[in-house]
């Protein structure tokens, strides 16, 4: 992956501002791209874009290929002639710092159904249908069957209920609109020198078009239910580990099929982005398998993944692999050897640099690395620091006291701790790492109220939204000056 010394901001599309309850692919996405350019940032880092399920996690999608309808812009629907201005005026919501997912789902569904009534198939739609036929037909049929079965899981579909052609056509239309709007945003960013850094989940939701249409590739019982599910053992994110509930893969069968499902999945993601983060990279070397039905991830076991043969196949079929390996958590020498063999940059998270794992400290970085102050799974830097300080101040933990002192000594912030987030930003920007990524919450100095996700907690995540007035000219100017000073303002090589 050839990208010059650069920096960027982590902000998921749903967290953009706007008047329709959730961030989308409309005007505010272009506003943010312009803000990135003004701050001399060259990467926009975001979370997976797939169709989300009940808990709204972008890492648990109804499809490995389809886009999330909640990201479709009502304003763009008006420009495209599917809706009138007054149609969307009636559905505007009060600007809020948190997403009300049930209200947004209902509103977007009503708008898209209304837009569909104005839709007439044309050459562009038929070309889209042909280009994406391998997955689109299966996904649209699956979603139509879910509609007909009142949202039941596919293992509970009534065998006598068939998908209606009009319902299939509706779901194809939604994807046609999503990908059309995405391409517009991608072109807009490309014209301004902004690279898009996407994110690829390792697993797929059990109640998805992929597991329904290709059950042979997943570890399932005869009745379709998962036999084993993915997760990770206890680590610094969760004491009981993380139990994701997603079925593990039958890698033997995927190998027999030439890994084609994965090849198609990654090709599509690569066509949508410039850089792709592979979430849970260690799962390709070995994955934590937990018997379905267990309450926690504690009683699992490590099972060998596809390893180097998988990535050799990808190179042969896809060419250069513009991947970043998410190598956080329990990382073995075998995992690192796999990453290095295929020349994928790893990740470092500065918050972890003050625990026992000093590889996350800037003094130990290497060039082929993506350095983050924190990720979507971390608390914000200020939220994390307040927790560390609180534990140290009240004597709750000797480790916390040592961590607080280590932070102060390394960053030399005695007396200026109110600006700790900028000391963190400066540390990753000034480091040798090729890429430095900062969550927008850290640029703004926000606390735990702005946290995106708390691993191990099933509900209440993914709701935070940026308010447009929060990102001021002062923030952009300060970030721009730091980016210039640390040699990250040059245009990257794609």
What can you tell me about this protein's structure?
The mean pLDDT is 94. The protein has 17 helices and twelve strands. Helix 1 (27-38) links the parallel strand 1 and strand 2 (43-45). With 494 residues, the protein is of the alpha/beta class. The chain has an eight-stranded parallel beta sheet with strand order 9-6-3-2-1-12-11-10. The longest helix has 27 residues, at 165-191. Helix 5 (123-131) packs across helix 6 (133-148), helix 6 (133-148) packs across helix 7 (165-191) and helix 13 (381-393) packs across helix 14. The protein has helices at 27-38, 74-79, 85-89, 101-117, 123-131, 133-148, 165-191, 209-213, 251-256, 260-272, 307-318, 333-341, 381-393, 398-411, 420-430, 440-444, 473-485, and strands spanning 6-10, 43-45, 195-200, 228-232, 242-247, 275-278, 286-291, 301-304, 323-325, 346-349, 369-372, 435-439.
In short:
With 494 residues, the chain is α/β, with parallel strands linked by helices. The chain has helices at 27-38, 74-79, 85-89, 101-117, 123-131, 133-148, 165-191, 209-213, 251-256, 260-272, 307-318, 333-341, 381-393, 398-411, 420-430, 440-444, 473-485, and strands spanning 6-10, 43-45, 195-200, 228-232, 242-247, 275-278, 286-291, 301-304, 323-325, 346-349, 369-372, 435-439. The longest helix has 27 residues, at 165-191.
Key traits:
17 helices; globular; 494 residues; alpha/beta; four-stranded antiparallel beta sheet; eight-stranded parallel beta sheet
Strand order of the largest sheet: 9-6-3-2-1-12-11-10
| Secondary structure tally, helices | 17
Q: Which range does the strand content fall in?
A: 5-15%
User: Could you name the ranges where pLDDT drops below 50 across 5 or more consecutive residues?
Assistant: none
Global structural class: alpha/beta
> SSE string, helix = H, strand = E?
EHEHHHHHHEHEEHHEEEHEHEEHHHEHH
First-last Cα distance: 8 Å
Mean pLDDT: 94
Task: Indicate the radius of gyration in whole angstroms.
Answer: 23 Å
Report on the biggest sheet: 8 strands, parallel
Classify the helix fraction into a percent range: 25-40%
Record field, number of beta strands: 12
Given the C-alpha coordinates, what overall shape results?
globular
């Amino acid at each position: 992956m050839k990208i010059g010394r650069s920096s960027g901001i982590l902000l998921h599309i749903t967290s953009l501002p706007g008047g329709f309850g959730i961030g989308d692919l409309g005007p505010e996405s272009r506003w943010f791209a312009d803000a990135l350019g003004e701050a001399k940032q060259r990467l926009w880092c975001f979370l997976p874009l797939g169709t989300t399920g009940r808990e709204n996690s972008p890492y648990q999608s109804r499809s490995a290929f389809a886009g999330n309808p909640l990201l479709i812009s009502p304003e763009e629907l008006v420009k495209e002639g599917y809706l009138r201005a007054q149609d969307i005026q009636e559905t505007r919501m009060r600007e809020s710092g948190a997403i009300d997912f049930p209200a947004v789902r209902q509103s977007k569904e009503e708008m898209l159904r209304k837009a569909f009534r104005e839709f007439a198939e044309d050459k562009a739609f038929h070309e889209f249908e042909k280009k994406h036929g391998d997955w689109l037909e299966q996904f649209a049929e699956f979603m139509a069957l879910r509609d007909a079965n009142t949202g039941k899981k596919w293992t509970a579909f009534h065998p006598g209920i068939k998908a209606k052609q009009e319902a299939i056509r509706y779901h194809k239309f939604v994807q046609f609109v999503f990908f059309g709007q995405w391409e517009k945003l991608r072109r807009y960013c490309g014209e301004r020198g902004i690279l898009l850094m996407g994110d690829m989940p390792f697993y797929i939701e059990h109640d998805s078009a992929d597991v329904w249409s290709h059950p042979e590739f997943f570890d399932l019982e005869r009745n379709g239910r998962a036999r084993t599910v993915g997760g990770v053992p206890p680590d610094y994110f969760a004491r009981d580990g993380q139990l994701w509930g997603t079925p593990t893969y039958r890698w033997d069968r995927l190998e027999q099929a030439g890994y084609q499902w994965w090849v198609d999945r990654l090709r599509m993601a690569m066509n949508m982005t410039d850089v792709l983060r592979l979430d849970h990279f260690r799962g390709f070397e070995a994955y934590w398998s937990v018997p379905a039905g267990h309450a926690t991830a504690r009683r699992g076991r490590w099972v060998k993944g596809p390893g180097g043969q998988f990535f050799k196949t990808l190179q042969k079929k896809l060419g250069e692999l513009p991947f970043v390996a998410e190598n956080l958590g329990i990382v073995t020498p075998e995992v690192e050897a796999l990453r290095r063999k295929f020349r994928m940059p790893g990740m470092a998270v500065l918050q972890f640099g003050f625990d026992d794992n000093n590889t996350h400290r800037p003094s130990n970085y290497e060039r082929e690395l993506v350095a983050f102050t924190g990720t979507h799974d971390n608390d914000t830097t200020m939220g994390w620091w307040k927790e560390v300080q609180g534990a140290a101040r009240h004597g709750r933990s000797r480790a916390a006291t040592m961590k607080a002192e280590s932070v102060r000594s390394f960053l030399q912030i005695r007396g200026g701790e109110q600006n700790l987030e900028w000391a963190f930003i400066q540390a990753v920007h000034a480091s040798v790492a090729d890429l430095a990524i900062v969550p927008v919450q850290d640029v703004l100095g926000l606390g735990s109220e702005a946290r995106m996700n708390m691993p191990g907690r099933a509900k209440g995540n993914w709701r935070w939204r940026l308010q447009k007035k929060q990102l001021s000219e002062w923030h952009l100017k300060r970030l721009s000056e730091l980016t210039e000073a640390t040699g990250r303002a040059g245009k990257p090589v794609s």
